[in-house]
Amino acid sequence: MLAISCEEMKAMDFYAIEKIGIPSIVLMENAALRVIDNIDLDRMNSITLICGVGNNGGDGLAIARHLIINRKNVDLFIVGNLDKGTKDFNINLNILKNMELKFIHITGEKELEILKKSLVKNDLTIDSIFGIGLTRDVEDIYKDVISLINHYSNNILSVDIPSGLDGDTGEILGISVKSNKTITFHLIKKGLLESKEYTGEIIVEPIGIPEKVTKVILERME
Ligand SMILES: NC(=O)C1=CN([C@@H]2O[C@H](COP(=O)(O)OP(=O)(O)OC[C@H]3O[C@@H](n4cnc5c(N)ncnc54)[C@H](O)[C@@H]3O)[C@@H](O)[C@H]2O)[C@@H](O)CC1
Ligand SMILES: [K+]
């Protein structure tokens, strides 16, 4: 199975968007729908989503929207500086605000306590905090959140990469979500292959990036 680096993935995303003309929000929506396809909606009714403020978090917001449309009980939490949200994160956050979905912005003890209550009673926790954009050790409030996720969740699904895992080396950057299932997009990231203990079952899902893009980038980056 072809395994790629985060840098190669970023280059493929960029080429698909800039050269082929697939809007990034389309890739994000495809990613969200692929995650929904991998959730047993007949059995999962109460779902806790924890989103970062990058595009991994944006995936999570789009997933939350589709879960609501499927009449699920969604507890949505966001961790990170809301002023630093990416373009696509903000598009999906704006939609949820227009749908009047309440979310909790985790900034301290009070919200961590609410998160814990949501985790202990839910059917599924979805980790959408960091993906291929993780660049340094996880610290502070992020570390507290991931620790709660690991301690109190019954069943965890990670979006693209378990948050805290280095997508290239499989190294734990301070702390990482220990997932039951990881839905990774387009091609498997090298770091996932070494870390079964953290990824759980790995499922690779296409998000609409044409084969040509993969070829061009791999030839260029050889
Ligand atoms: N258009 C695209 O590029 C697509 C991206 N997708 C999703 O977007 C993800 C990549 O998104 P981003 O590049 O925005 O990055 P992430 O969403 O992975 O990370 C968010 C931000 O967290 C910050 N960060 C990194 N390490 C941190 C740390 N230790 N503590 C605190 N903050 C930290 C960085 O500034 C980074 O931009 C992929 O993993 C995938 O889930 C998919 O939606 C497919 C389309
Ligand atoms: K993640």
From TrEMBL:
The EC category is: isomerase
Write down the EC number. Answer: 5.1.99.6
Molecular function GO terms recorded: NAD(P)HX epimerase activity
Cofactor note text: Binds 1 potassium ion per subunit.
* Keywords on record: Isomerase, Metal-binding, NAD, NADP, Nucleotide-binding, Potassium
Spell out the NCBIfam families in the cross-references: yjeF_nterm
Name the UniProt record assigns to this protein: NAD(P)H-hydrate epimerase
Organism for this UniProt entry: Tissierella carlieri
The gene for this chain is: nnrE
